Amino acid sequence: MQGQLQQLHGRTARLGENQVSQTAPISLHKRYEQRTASRSCTAPKAQARSAKAQAATSSNSSSLDWKRNSSQTPIDQLPEPDGDWSLPFIGETPEFKANHWEWARKRVKKYGPVFRSNIFGSDVVVVTDFIGLQKVFGGAHKLTQWMTAPSLEILCDGMLSASKEKASHQKQRRQQGAAFTPDAMDAYLPRVVATCEAYLQEWASQDSVNLVPAMGELSFDFAEGLVVGLGIQGEEKRILGAKWQEFTKGAITFTLDAPGTPFRRARKAKEYILAAIKDRVAEKTREFERGSVKKDTLLSFFASAKVDEGDPLNEPELAMNVLMFMLAGSDTSRDAHKVLLGILPQLPTAILDELRAEQRRIVEKHGPGYSRAAMGAMRYADALAREVLRIWGPADVLFRLAKEDFELHGKRIKKGSTILTSMLYAKASDPRMSAGDHELQSVPLHMDIHQLQASVKPERWLDPHNKLDMAALATFGMGPHSCLGAPLYMQEAKVLLAMIARGYDVSNATGEPVDWGMSPNAAGGSPAADVFLKFTPHQYV
Ligand code: HEM
Could you tell me if 164 and 145 are in contact, meaning their C-beta atoms sit under 8 angstroms apart? Predict the structure, then answer.
């Protein structure tokens, strides 16, 4: 399901109709060479330079700050960003897709933290640090406008345009936000627990589990079950899952609506899915009419918020919202769970020991169940899940449109420019994490998934001096459009980690260390080849 709702839940997005993002996969050997290229010791000078350059940087969402022009020079006298957008169509896409870090690193060194490029057939202004992200995302609806691929807009029947204007977006967010409150999270918890239990038991009964397809099934189950709660099983579920794949594969593509095109297949798949959820939506509408609504799914919380706002319940519109929630929550979660579970066999023993020790303390205090209090006490599991998202999070790029001319790092971003925010490079160069090596080697040590001993440090999230919040992950976006589903993903991740820590050993049945590829969304995929895990029951807690 590579073609996901890229802008709603931010993976490497492809822009509209002239998006040709596939490049030839590079060989494993080549990938290794690129990864290790110029990996040398960190220069203290570079460290100091980097820390100084970003001393004022904070990614805390509370400090999201924007000002149209922070320089002394009038905007129309500022220079435009440097860079190369002379190559039309393919532009720098192959280099970007092959190795996002290296592509950004070279250009930041040459042009500074904001430069221009041509990616996926569009001229873009690239923003690569947290100062820039704060301005671009914090300035939503004023300096910048949310954007997505035309194919997706059409498939969602124009509903995504609500995200573009302040008033409609705020209203939409209020209503959608009702599905992610702490009370809503409590309502979903039993289903999350039951789903994780069932999958872990099933995986333990198998000789080995193919990581990526298994996480695809799990995430689809989470998405379908928590959003709409169809309660389907067997063949019916298999067909719906297949239709879902067709829909998401064709959601970001050329808008050519002809027989056999991905867009036509996606449109047909969408109609099938909407028909499948129609009855459940109608049932929910009747519950409202009877005044006996059972709040147990995202749909029910969202519909209640609409009623509270005095909006009449319209079944087709509810169904489209269900589709959007599922779209937002499935592939991103699959990719995040894939890394969370895939790295377990390679994690330093001390981390696994601490995870189990925390679960022992929690069970002693709260009992074996998964209550709100028990979930709240899982601070180490929470920190580990964040750390994995930080290192190899699904969203490494988001796009925005400049609504008006504004200044960034002394450059003029012109109204109408497409802005590509590199969340991956912003994290790589985050002075709270990087020792400066992001300037010297393509993958900085603090984000190197192939060197977990050095990169994974859950404790950095537990030290209040670091002042890290979810925005520091960048992977959930920042500012007014930031991910509403983050608490739901974190709940799933914590339950999975807790159950594994209490009762399973996870080993790599492939026999070789996992090759995660060049970056989370690099051409060639991540992981670069099938990974098989073995789940062995072991009563630790
Ligand atoms: C690891 C999992 C996830 C990741 C990495 C992720 C990432 C993101 C990102 C980056 C955005 C911001 C997009 C932008 O600014 O253009 C976003 C928005 C959103 N996400 Fe997620 N997401 C995840 C899971 C979920 C889940 C499980 C749901 C719900 C079922 C969800 C619902 C949403 C919604 C509704 C928005 C739109 C917010 C708005 O525009 O106001 N996400 N997500």
Answer: yes
The closest-lying atom of ligand 1 relative to the alpha carbon of residue 172 is: 41
Query: What's the number of CA atoms in the CB half-sphere (13 Å) around residue 488?
Result: 30
Give the homologous superfamily in CATH for domain 16-537: Cytochrome P450 (1.10.630.10)
- Unique residue bearing structure tokens 């994290």: 427
Cα separation of 332 and 220, whole Å? 11
Which residue bears the tokens 């303390």? 361
Q: Give the tens place of pLDDT for each residue, 407-455.
A: 999 999 999 999 999 999 999 999 888 888 899 988 999 999 999 999 9
Q: Where do the structural domains in the chain lie, given as residue ranges? A: 16-537
Atom of ligand 1 lying closest to residue 330 CA: 27
The residue with tokens 């802005």 is: 419
Among protein residues, the one whose CA lies closest to atom 16 of ligand 1: 7
Per-residue CA distances from 287 to 181, 293, 295, 308 (Å): 21, 5, 10, 15
Q: Write out pLDDT tens, residues 62-113.
A: 456 688 999 999 999 999 999 976 666 678 888 998 999 999 999 999 999 9
Q: Which of 18-22, 86-90, 130-134, 150-154 has the lowest mean pLDDT?
A: 18-22
Predicted confidence band of residue 499 (pLDDT cuts 50, 70, 90): very high
Q: What is the DSSP letter of 41?
A: P
- Cα 163 to middle of ligand 1, angstroms: 13
Backbone phi, then psi, for 529, in 5-degree steps? -145, 165
- Shortest-distance atom of ligand 1 to CA 137: 15
Please name the residues in contact with 235: beta carbons below 8 A apart, sequence gap of 6 or more.
none
Q: Which residues' Cβ are closer than 6 Å to ligand 1?
A: 7-10, 146, 163, 173, 176, 325, 328-329, 332-333, 336, 393-395, 398, 475-477, 481-485, 488-489
**Whole-number pLDDT of residue 468:** 87
Closest to 331 (Cα-Cα) out of 401, 255, 394: 394
Least confident of 33-42, 64-73, 203-212, 449-458: 33-42
Mean pLDDT value across residues 491-506 = 98
CA–CA separation, 122 and 186 (whole Å):
44
* CA 15 to ligand 1 center in whole angstroms: 18
Q: Model's pTM, two decimal places?
A: 0.89
pLDDT the model gives residue 52: 36
